[in-house]
From TrEMBL:
This is BAH domain-containing protein. It comes from the Eukaryota. It comes from Polyporus arcularius HHB13444. Its main location: nucleus. One of its GO terms (molecular function) is chromatin binding. It is found in: Nucleus. Residues 433-565, 608-691 form the BAH domain. The keyword Transmembrane does not apply. GO terms for cellular component: nucleus. The keyword Membrane does not apply. Keywords: Nucleus. InterPro entries: BAH_dom (IPR001025), BAH_sf (IPR043151), Cytosine_MeTrfase1_RFD (IPR022702). Residues 31-47 have a biased composition (Polar residues). Residues 1-107 are annotated as: Disordered.
């Protein structure tokens, strides 16, 4: 007998504004709301007081120099939606989970299977399949009959099988059936273990909740975010590796969390403090380990307390953890003989601490949650506040240059005492600032090698110019080689910012690479927006945010890095312009090596030597190459040498005029002389000698 579905009645929001106006919540952020009216506050005050855990006070005037919107409010729950049930879903207790093998699956110590639920949602079948939050399971005052739905797959003891199953989940969910569980009994989170996922339990199995369904993402994020933050803080305190708040902030804040599927924001820490206090206060083990007395935990408590008076209040209290309903945790089978021994050593609990050099420690900064042990003296690393200050200085400078780009072309002048010889100068004045040979100039990005530079933003807001922007996002950097006063141009050798190479995130934001590319900047067309301080090599002192250095030459063609040996190029730089450009000289040398060379009665081209009466393959506009006999060479003073040839024909080209029986005697390499007049071709059209 099929289940009777209750009619899906519209919500109050849908009646007022229509179903299409229901806002779509960002699953990675907490829903925000405006401050409620007095009538709204009074309507909910009595119920909130009974279970209130934490309220911030009324919003005060922001302090000087502090953003009033730094701590967002916690808004009302996301709008309620009804789940679509097709009736084709597998039912727990009746259907069989595809691929689940009792010998290979991951079980608890009590023999209950552990399964994975992807694309999940929690709903109330007695309320028209309305989507609900797991936080309602903690309400011990009433019995709730919540169920879960999603794409089910078994959890395996062998991690290789689990990885293959994850790939199937990502690539094709149809490989797993959509699954409805029976009534959920509880949810479980082990707050003492960083990598422990969120579980829910039914009478038949435990389920690991992975990615939520799109329609359920906002509801799940509202519930799971404070629990995940509490798990991160408590597990870090249990490990004992982190002491100060600066260390915790450097390792976790503003970094991507895989379980949360979002970045950890500073305000998340304050919002999770009531939940952390509830968990620590009810757990004797956590009290014995003095979790709450850790310096960084105390700093988070103080941060939440201080932020309450100067930030918007929290509209809804966080529901404390119900220790009785959440006491049960899945105790997985353990043992040396369980699973693959080769893979068991890869589990986090069986890993030895990773030891790295100071250089690798700097490169790995912010990319790993694992604590790295440095062998040798640890280099000085700026804290997060210093980094934010440096980044703000960089963004302000980027905005300053973008604003200059909106102005008219600046007036340029050439100092009389800066002339070298003829039309070449060693300095030029732009915006009353002197630019000399060897300086690094900043110009707007342009079109190069088929890539469009794009228009620079005219709006300097954060939406157009992100907070973590770099100079290389909008500008090109070049080293002045020489200055042409007559043409009013700068000849530069280009730099490449390290973040624009394949180094990506592990690059040094203050490192540049010289490129084997040069170009000419027309000061009558392209504005020079400023100049930078660039060192070679890197000085031993700490660099300012707008100081850069370079030590290598980066070749994008082959992805190689070579030393920028200044000693080897000193002879070139002592030459006068325009012969002091190393890139131009290297290109000229390459052209000379690859250009045809004619001497007396022989022609040399691309390693091949040709003489009169030799046979050669000649480039053809279409079809296979032509074959010709060289008659003579001609030296052109103003262009490339030419070659006079007598063409030969292929016997297979005459096949259409031959009898069918004689075709068996033809050879594809057989040639014949022709009486066609000789032809003249460029030496570059010769492909190779042939016999």
């Amino acid at each position: 007998m099929s289940e009777r579905r209750r009619p899906n009645r519209p919500t109050a929001f849908a009646v007022s504004f229509g179903p299409d106006d229901v806002p779509v919540h960002d699953p990675g952020s907490v829903a925000l709301s405006q401050r409620p009216t007095p009538s709204q506050s009074g309507a909910t005050s009595s119920s909130n007081k009974r279970k209130q855990l934490y309220y911030a006070s009324e919003p005060a005037q922001p302090k000087r120099g502090r953003r009033s919107d730094y701590w967002p409010k916690r808004g009302p729950p996301p709008p309620k939606h009804a789940l679509s049930i097709t009736g084709n879903e597998g039912k727990e207790g009746i259907a069989v989970v595809p691929g689940e093998d009792p010998e290979e699956r991951l079980d608890t110590a009590d023999g209950e299977p552990v399964r994975i639920l992807n694309g999940f949602a929690i709903y109330n079948p007695s309320q028209g399949f309305e989507l609900v939050s797991l936080s309602c399971l903690n309400d011990g005052s009433k019995q709730v009959d919540f169920e879960a739905i999603g794409y089910v797959s078994p959890a395996f003891v062998n991690e290789e099988d689990a990885d293959q199953d994850d790939d199937d989940d990502d690539d094709n969910r149809d490989l797993h059936s959509r699954w409805r569980t029976t009534r959920l009994e509880c949810y479980s989170i082990d707050y003492t273990r960083f990598h422990e996922p969120l579980y829910v339990q039914t009478r038949y199995a435990w389920y690991i909740l992975k990615s939520p369904d799109v329609a359920y993402a906002a509801t799940h994020a509202e519930f799971y975010r404070p629990h995940r933050i509490a798990q991160i803080i408590i597990s870090a305190a249990m490990e004992g590796e982190i002491s100060t708040f600066d260390e915790f902030e450097e390792q976790y804040v503003d970094t991507w969390d895989d379980l949360l599927e979002a970045r950890l924001r500073p305000q998340d820490l304050c919002e999770a403090v009531p939940l952390i206090q509830s968990i620590v206060g009810d757990d004797a083990t956590l009290q014995q380990r003095a979790v709450a007395s850790r310096p960084f935990v105390q700093a988070i408590y103080a941060l939440a307390k201080n932020s309450s008076s100067g930030s918007p209040y929290i509209d809804r209290p966080l529901v404390p953890a119900d220790r009785e309903r959440n006491a049960g945790r899945p105790k997985l089978k353990e043992g040396v003989t369980l699973g693959n021994l080769d893979l068991a050593v890869l589990r986090p609990e069986n890993q030895n601490p990773t030891h790295v050099t100071p250089l690798l420690d700097n490169l790995a900064r912010g990319l790993f949650h694992e604590r790295l042990y440095v062998v040798g003296p640890r280099t000085k690393r700026p804290n997060r506040r210093e980094m934010e200050k440096h980044q703000k200085e960089i963004r302000d400078h980027v905005c300053k240059l973008l604003y200059r780009n909106l102005e008219e072309l600046p007036r340029i002048s050439f100092p009389a005492n800066a002339r070298l010889h003829d039309e070449y100068w060693k300095a030029v004045c732009i915006r009353e600032e002197v630019y000399q040979v060897g300086d690094c100039v900043v110009v707007p990005r342009g079109n190069w090698n088929g890539t469009q530079g794009g228009d620079l933003p005219r709006d300097l807001s954060v939406s157009e110019v992100p907070e973590y922007t770099t100079l290389a996002d909008y500008f090109w950097l070049g080293k002045i080689i020489y200055i042409d006063q007559r043409l009013k141009t700068l000849h530069v050798q280009w730099f490449e910012h390290s973040s624009k190479t394949y180094l990506g995130k592990i690059s040094d934001p203050q490192e540049l690479f010289l490129c084997p590319l040069c170009g000419t900047i027309d000061l009558k067309v392209v504005p020079v927006l400023g100049k930078l301080t660039v060192h070679n090599p890197r000085p031993p002192r700490e660099l300012a945010p707008l100081e850069f250095f370079y030590q290598f030459v980066y070749n994008q063609a082959d992805g190689s890095f070579t030393d920028s040996d200044e000693d080897s190029t000193s002879d070139i730089t002592t030459l006068g312009p325009p012969d002091n450009c190393q890139v131009c000289l290297a290109a000229a040398e390459q052209r000379h090596e690859t250009a045809p060379s004619l001497s007396r009665d022989e022609l040399t081209y691309l390693g091949q030597t040709y003489h009169a009466d030799d046979y050669a393959l000649v480039r053809a506009t279409e079809g296979p190459a032509k074959v010709g006999q060289i008659i003579s060479f001609h030296d052109k003073r103003t262009s490339s040498p030419t070659v006079t040839l007598r063409l030969l024909g292929r016997i297979v080209d005459l096949a259409s005029s031959m009898a069918e029986g004689s075709l068996l005697l033809l050879h594809e390499r057989e040639l014949f002389m022709t009486d066609a007049p000789p032809i003249v071709v460029k030496a570059e059209d010769l492909l190779k000698r042939c016999t």
